[in-house]
Amino acid sequence: MDTPTLPRLAVTAGEPAGVGPELLARLAASDVAADLVAVTDRDLLARAASACGLVLDIVDDDGTRIATRPAGRIRIRHVALGATERFGEPDPRNARHVLAMLALAADGCLAGDFDAVVTGPVQKSSINEGGVAFIGHTEFFAERAAADVVMMLASPELRVTLATTHLPLSAVPAAVTPALLERTLRIVAGSLSSHFGIARPRIAVLGLNPHAGEGGHMGREEIDTIIPLLDRLRDDGMDLLGPLPADTAFVPAMRARYDAVLAMYHDQALPVLKSEAFDRTVNVTLGLPFIRTSVDHGTALDLAGTGKADPASLFAATRLAIDLARHRITT
To answer: Which option is the CATH number for 1-147+288-331: 3.40.50.720, 3.40.50.1820, 3.40.718.10, 3.40.50.280?
Structure first.
């Protein structure tokens, strides 16, 4: 009988001047059950480990599958820095380094070399100052894989997806179209089935307006757009709840009725999730042909180099990637 191998996770270190390399060093020092492949500069990782008081066994990744990994050992795909990092001071000369890490990880997943990618936080402003137009990880991976994607924020207790992401509130009503909602709901339902193993996903859909429009007295988007679309998708066999008023959708009795929530805009649902599970919340990109999870925090430049940054979110992202990868491998 063959010995099961560990899931192979490409882990990108993110912004060299931020806390990402230190978080990666702490992950490598742990006994998490995965074949961790650091995608970063070898010397940067060693310096980050030193800042945390750790000594790592960093070895070149030869692509072979392994069944065990001792704590403190991590394999590496070396991506050279453009300029030596200075903690807390992002350098635009490292923009190409950051994008090269992401490209290597994504292409490795597409080729089957990795089972998932876990990403550390990046400094978008520094990448753009380096002469590269960059919106974010999600958009980069979507373009690399030629995929339609949806952002999910997941904790052990709650999964939230977004119809719109980083839009001004004034632009949200016009953006919430039947086409957008249908595309989003189909991606979410398909991913809950394929990634999370939920045979018949139940999705709660929030209304756009207070009290879900209250029969048109507080807005007509529910009547004119959301309800007709949900009725049509129900006719296609989707299990959809709503539109629900956002102020009662997250009470325990309601949560028991669904597997994920679709919110109409960024701040409609994420404050609920982050207030109760900030250090356990994971960013998951749905719709990609590979698994991608990420920390749900920024580069924390003020903590870089101190060795004090909390690795909880990276550990949560890694554990979820392992679970999703094992499900995909066995199905």
So the answer is: 3.40.718.10
